[in-house]
Design a protein that fits this description.
13% helix, mainly beta, five-stranded mixed sheet, 19 helices, 1250 residues
């Protein structure tokens, strides 16, 4: 305890002593440079004054040192005027020096001999080369933010046009340099604005939206952050709010979209469906100016977003035959097999459940409000219709800047975001069907979000500057407040788990949450000689409050092998129907209402600490983090700057505040097997998992104090004479930069809440099932209704796990994940305003967080693989000798006993030896699936125990056999390498351009969206199988953004003396953004489990990966879109038994050898290409006042970007076990977040600027 106190005392002392410039959430940057005379000699003692051109704020003069170097630190992002005065020289003025957040600006001045009273103006602003830092960053400034055409008014979406951003789907699926989303830190005015709950899984979702008219700039640092910026993510996205000036400036604007102006979505077109409704209006106004000139300034922006919504929806429904119980399938009888008649003939229930009958009638009636098309599988149809809704959003922003003399500055920024929707399309809770009871079941989402940032900057001396900044972000998000139990009375008072068609109920419960963030930074910059020192600290506190409301019981209609009616589902009654017996069972179960299981959730009252079905559950949590750093920028010579420093970052464990969670330890994760005894059947030494109360003193893992992040880099300006002059040009025309750094991640709260919230405690799940023996067989909903549940007693700690509970625990040695990044670049000045840069960038994600499932099914050490192969042989011998299609040991020559099967079934003569599920597993070599079937059935498990088999025969933790055991620790690594060519031209002579090409390779050992979201390892036996392509492994990318002022009108190349003609031709501009990239990686799957319960991959037959890649194509035939040659598709379907015939030639097949993995094959989806263009016309009323009209053509060429999987997903798979393999019914669209219906859109913009 004394050691802990001494650490904290030391820490507190450091916090008091260490104040620094450019803390990790900085919105400031320095201006520096060298003052020389005409001969190139340094001028010491020159007086340099910096003035904010907009606000009039002047900063105390600074003097150059002996080398003629000066620095003015901690300046807010703005446009400045730099004035240099030296006796014996003319006073030099450099206007229009643009300074962006976190990126130093260089202003070098060569003085002319003369009187100090004489003044010359130096045109050109800051140097176009970045000669002060090795950090790789790009800045998009206010004009680009407001004028570049792109699909939304959310400035964050502009990141899509920057190198290093990989976007496999819609904008929110993006990653920066292949990094998991927990590695991204998004700030606005220095304070993190991300949703702290979802930061790991949806890192581009921000609480406060950066609206384009409120933002002054966006700076994205993608690689090698300095020590000052490496605390909460390797990729930094920094927004700065506009500020007022000494003149009143503003804009009134309207953005308008209309369905009539849009092209139709491709798949709507080919199905003769109407266009998705897009009647979007976004309007508002901004204004800024002085309250007291040069002293107190203000800025305000207010805008509204109004969207009447109308979205096309598709549901899978039963075909008219299937509604009557008739199952038709390929190769079966032409008239099909009536599962109801078959059941009645064999003495089982053979009529449709009345509730299901009404439900199906309502669904069929609703199809009159849309249209229906048949699918490849004859028992289903696709129903398409339109749902309507609407959204209103309001975005007020206010900023004040107060200059208290020339040494003190205060800023205050306030944002409020109000979101309200009639129907929550984003979360899919619009009506599942357009009429009947289903049409009543829909809900909305609403939230009031806010942020407040305050900063105080003071100049202590000309060489010492301090800034303190404090910010808060919060707001409650309410999901589905309309939820009502009355919606479910027509369904018997329960949420029904259905098979084969889409459920008519869109939701089952409602919730709300808040994750407030508080951040404090204090920053000090000290210039001493050629050293520019930064010292600093930051403090962050993130909270979480979540409330889940009452939910209904769920009754699942389905099938168990224990059901007596299972005996009628065989190939005798379903000729050639081996692959369709499961469908037949499910059709019977859903029509008759055969109850297979039921679940219900009870909640622990926050105050009563008792379980109830009627109260809400509330969880309150907190996490804190701090960092201290030291950083130096040492100008070792005129052309060489060395940046070096280090950061100490401490992230404290999550803290649970209201004592409703329970936790288990590492012993509980392994249960009765004992810690570490994976794949050791019969191991003992453990015990049944125990849960303890998570009090306020509980910490899920130890504090990691050993987190030091170094940063080092240099910027070298070579050139001059000789060979270096030939390579790099004359002195000052090129810069070589390189650097290395470590940055730590701060992951989202969902990691903590998902783990401890899944332990019984806050909630207690109740489950009844036929397999577990807690529900009887042959129980039908019409007679049984909702099964009754016994409310659990209040928890008494510790308590033991039940076999239906999950155990979830953290590694006690969990560390902060971190990113190593490095870069090497050469930047060359092509013209005074244009640079060309070649760079190599790389990063490695180390010790990233990961959740693992421990109860992997075992087939090796328990001897089951050998027995499975014997069972295959038994079946072959029985079939060959006329003993039927079964794998029973009939004592025939070559047959063998099957002790695990026999023990599980309870008898060596059990009818289960002829069960179609087990027979299919044998035919297809699915040893892992067979082990999963035997392990997860309570009857089989009980039977094995009776004859002496150990409980952990198949899994390490049998005490939670019917749920699972989850471990959370450091278990993921990522890798990224890229080469980038980038051209940048600042606005000059009417043209601004940013363009890039990137070749990149991103790999990962989890094909998953997040560094910490749940991802199953293929096997715990080896991590090597998981190493492969990242979801963001997009190899080639071309991106561009430009603003071009056409050379017409007064002050430009071509003008007229006639006033009307000048008005007609003035102010024309052409703007654009464009991106093209190769397709996103997609993993091929087979659905076959030959080793354990996980997909075992695929096998390429008669071809290799290169040949498969070359086959990629996009064919449009008969209203369908195909991505592979038809011969490959057909033979793949034959190999999977989905098409009659024997596969031949080139195809993709499943793994078939028990205990052996297939290959894990990735293919690239179709390439992506899109251009957004706009034509602009400004008409000037007077010099400071104009009317602006824009016609924006979004996806101007109406390019259809076909995709494998949904654009809303960043992780996609392509199953060869589907009848639709080789086809896609997806093209790019984003209806929910950017209102992009998928075809070309025309948007009109009208502005009055003053």
């Amino acid at each position: 305890m004394g050691f802990y106190r001494s650490r904290m005392t030391f820490l507190f002392a450091l916090l008091l002593a260490a104040t620094a410039a450019m803390a990790q959430v900085t919105t400031t940057a320095p201006i520096s440079g060298t003052i020389k005379d005409a001969s190139g000699a340094a001028i010491p003692g020159a007086e340099v004054t910096v003035e904010n051109q907009a606000s009039g704020a002047k900063y105390p003069p600074t003097l150059t040192n002996d080398q003629g170097v000066y620095i003015v630190p901690l300046l807010p992002a703005a446009t400045y005027r730099v004035t240099v005065a030296v006796p014996g020289f003319k006073t030099a003025v450099v206007p229009n020096v643009v300074l962006v957040a976190g990126t130093p600006a260089t202003v070098n001045v060569t003085m002319e001999v003369g009187q100090i009273s004489e003044q010359i103006t130096v045109i050109g602003g800051a140097e176009v080369l970045q000669t002060q830092t090795s950090t790789v960053s790009t800045t998009i400034q206010a004009r680009q933010i407001t004028e570049l055409p792109f699909v939304s008014r959310d400035a964050l979406d502009l990141i899509l046009f920057l190198p290093g951003t990989s976007t496999p789907g819609r904008p929110r699926t993006s990653s920066i340099q292949g990094l998991p989303k927990g590695s991204v830190n998004i700030t606005m005015d220095g304070v993190n604005t991300q949703d702290q709950t979802l930061k790991s899984s949806d890192g581009f979702f921000t609480y406060i939206r950066p609206r384009i008219d409120a933002m002054d700039e966006m700076t994205v640092s993608t690689n090698n952050p300095g020590a000052e910026s490496s605390g909460e993510g390797a990729a930094q996205i920094k927004f700065v709010t506009r500020s007022g000036s000494n003149e009143y400036r503003g804009s009134v604007y309207e953005y308008f979209r209309n369905t009539a102006l849009n092209a139709n979505y491709y798949f709507n077109n080919i199905a003769n469906r109407p266009r998705d409704n897009q009647q979007l209006n976004q309007y508002g106004a901004r204004v800024g100016g002085p309250i007291i000139k040069n002293k107190l300034l203000f800025f305000a922006n207010y805008e509204e977003y109004r969207l009447p919504e109308s979205y096309s929806r598709q549901r899978t429904i039963l075909s008219p035959d299937a509604e009557k119980g008739i199952l038709k399938y390929p190769g079966g009888p032409a008239e099909g097999v009536n599962v109801l008649s078959l059941a009645a003939q064999n003495g089982f229930v053979g009529t449709i459940d009345p509730i299901i009958s009404t439900m199906l009638s309502e669904i069929r009636e609703s199809t009159k409000l849309g249209f229906v098309e048949n699918l490849a599988n004859p028992w289903n149809q696709r129903f398409t219709f339109t749902n309507k809704g609407g959204q209103t959003r309001r975005f007020p922003t206010v900023r004040f800047d107060w200059n208290i003399g020339d040494k003190h500055h205060i800023e205050e920024i306030w944002n409020f975001n109000d979101f309200a929707s009639k129907t929550d399309f984003l979360n899919g809770v619009d009506p599942r069907y357009p009429s009947g009871n289903s049409a009543k079941i829909f809900a909305s989402q609403a939230s009031d979000r806010w942020s407040n940032v305050m900063a105080y900057r003071t100049t202590i001396t000309p060489r010492i500057v301090n800034e303190v900044r404090f910010g808060m972000v919060g707001g409650t998000v309410v999901f589905f407040p309309e939820f009502s139990q009355s919606w479910f009375q027509p369904y018997g008072g329960a949420y029904l788990g259905l098979q084969l068609y889409d459920n008519p109920a869109a939701l089952n419960g409602n919730q709300r949450r808040n994750a407030p963030t508080y951040q404090l930074t204090d920053s000090l910059h000290w210039t001493r000689g050629n050293h520019n020192w930064n010292f600093g600290f930051s403090l962050t506190q993130v909270g979480y409050w979540g409330e889940n409301f009452y939910t209904l019981p769920t009754v699942n209609f389905g099938f168990s092998t224990l059901q007596p009616v299972n005996t009628i589902f065989n190939t005798t009654n379903f000729p050639n129907g081996t692959n369709y017996l499961g469908t037949a069972r499910n059709l019977y179960a859903v029509l008759t209402g055969l109850v297979n299981s039921a679940t219900r959730t009870s909640y622990l009252g926050e105050k009563s600490k008792k379980y109830t079905f009627d109260e809400t559950s509330v969880a309150r949590n907190r996490q804190r983090e701090f960092g201290i750093f030291i950083q130096d920028s040492w100008k070792m010579s005129r052309n060489f700057t060395l940046n070096y420093g280090a950061r100490w970052e401490v992230q404290f464990p999550f803290v649970h505040l209201n004592e409703v969670y329970s936790y288990t330890d590492i012993n509980g994760l392994f249960g009765s097997s004992g810690v570490g005894n994976l794949f050791k059947p019969g191991a003992t030494g453990g015990s049944v998992p125990q849960y303890w109360l998570a009090t306020k003193d509980y910490r899920p893992y130890k504090t990691d104090w050993n987190n030091i992040a170094p940063a080092v880099g240099f910027a070298w300006t070579p050139g001059g004479s000789g060979w270096m002059g030939k390579v790099f040009g004359e002195a000052g025309k090129s810069v070589v930069r390189a650097g290395y750094s470590i940055a730590f991640n701060r992951e989202g709260f969902s990691n903590y809440t998902a783990m401890l919230g899944s332990n019984p405690g806050l909630t207690k799940g109740l489950s009844l099932s036929v397999d577990a023996g807690t529900l009887p067989t042959a129980q039908y909903y019409r007679s049984s209704g909702v099964p009754s549940f016994t409310l659990p007693d209040a928890p008494t700690y510790p308590f033991a796990a039940r076999n239906i509970d999950s155990v979830n625990g953290f590694s006690p040695d969990l560390k902060m994940g971190y990113i190593q990044s490095w870069n090497l670049s050469v930047q060359r000045e092509i013209t005074r305003d244009t640079t060309l840069e070649f760079r190599y960038v790389a990063n490695r994600g180390i010790k990233l967080w990961r959740q693992l499932r421990l109860n992997e099914r075992n087939i090796f050490e328990n001897g089951f693989l050998d027995e499975f192969q014997l069972a295959q042989k038994n079946r072959e011998i029985n079939v060959a000798n006329g003993k039927g299609n079964n794998f029973r040991n009939n004592g025939l020559p070559g047959q063998a006993a099957l002790p695990i099967y026999e023990a599980s079934f309870g008898s060596p003569t059990s009818s289960l030896f002829a069960n179609s599920t087990f027979l299919t597993q044998l035919e297809q070599g699915l040893a892992g699936a067979a082990a999963n079937s035997l392990a997860g059935n309570s009857t089989y498990h009980s039977n094995r125990l009776k004859v002496g088999y150990p409980a952990n025969l198949f899994v390490v933790n049998p005490d939670v056999l019917f749920s699972n055991s989850y471990w959370f620790g450091n278990g993921r690594m990522t890798k990224y390498d890229a080469g980038v060519i980038e051209v940048r031209r600042r606005m000059s002579r009417g043209l601004l351009v940013q363009g890039s090409y990137e070749w990149a390779k991103a790999s990962d050992d989890a094909f998953a969206s997040s560094s910490s979201s749940y991802s199953v390892r293929r096997t715990l036996r080896s991590t090597a199988l998981d190493r492969g392509r990242s979801p963001w492994d997009i190899r080639h990318s071309f991106k561009a953004a430009w603003i071009y002022e056409m050379p017409f009108g007064p002050g430009r190349g071509w003008s007229s003396t006639h006033g009307f003609i000048n008005k007609l031709v003035e102010g024309w501009e052409f703007h654009g953004t464009a991106r093209m990239n190769t397709g996103r990686p997609t993993l091929l799957t087979s659905g076959r489990a030959t080793v354990n319960e996980n997909d075992a991959g695929v096998r390429l037959r008669n071809m290799d990966l290169g040949m498969l890649a070359d086959m990629g194509e996009t064919r449009k035939e008969n209203g369908k879109v195909y991505l592979l040659p038809q011969s490959v598709i057909d033979n793949t379907l034959r190999a999977m038994g989905l098409l009659t015939g024997t596969p031949e030639g080139k195809y993709i097949g499943p793994p078939t050898e028990p205990g052996k993995w297939g290959g894990f094959v990735f293919v690239d989806g179709p390439p992506f290409a899109r251009a957004d263009l706009s034509i602009v016309k400004r008409t000037f009323i007077r010099e400071t006042m104009n009317v602006e009209f824009r016609a924006e053509f979004l996806n101007a060429f109406n390019n259809i970007n076909f995709m494998i999987g949904s654009p809303a997903s960043d992780v996609t798979t392509f199953g060869i076990n589907s009848n639709l393999f080789g086809q896609t019914s997806n093209a790019y669209q984003d209806l929910s977040t950017t209102n992009d219906p998928g075809g070309r859109m025309i948007q009109f913009v009208l502005r009055f600027n003053f």
